[in-house]
Design brief:
72 residues; mainly alpha; 0% strand; elongated
Length: 72
């Protein structure tokens, strides 16, 4: 999984972001479960990449919400 670029996330509409967020959360749950059971991860940096992608999506979603409210 590659790190999502900010431009890619901004180009998505709200429903696509929600869908991607759900997909990433499921993937994170799976990866942390495998790690907790002592399994070797496919890629050591995968969990941090997933977390970073989730954070980027949530940040952009919050920015969009604040724009609609009339904030900065």
């Amino acid at each position: 999984m590659a790190l999502l670029k900010t431009e890619e996330i901004r180009e998505m509409d709200e429903s696509e972001r929600e869908e991607k967020l759900e997909e990433l959360r499921d993937e994170l749950l799976h990866e942390t479960g495998v790690a907790a059971m002592g399994g070797a991860p496919e890629s050591p940096g995968r969990i941090s990449t997933i977390k970073r992608n989730i954070a980027r999506i949530l940040t952009i979603m919050n920015e969009e919400k604040n724009k609609q409210k009339g904030g900065n």
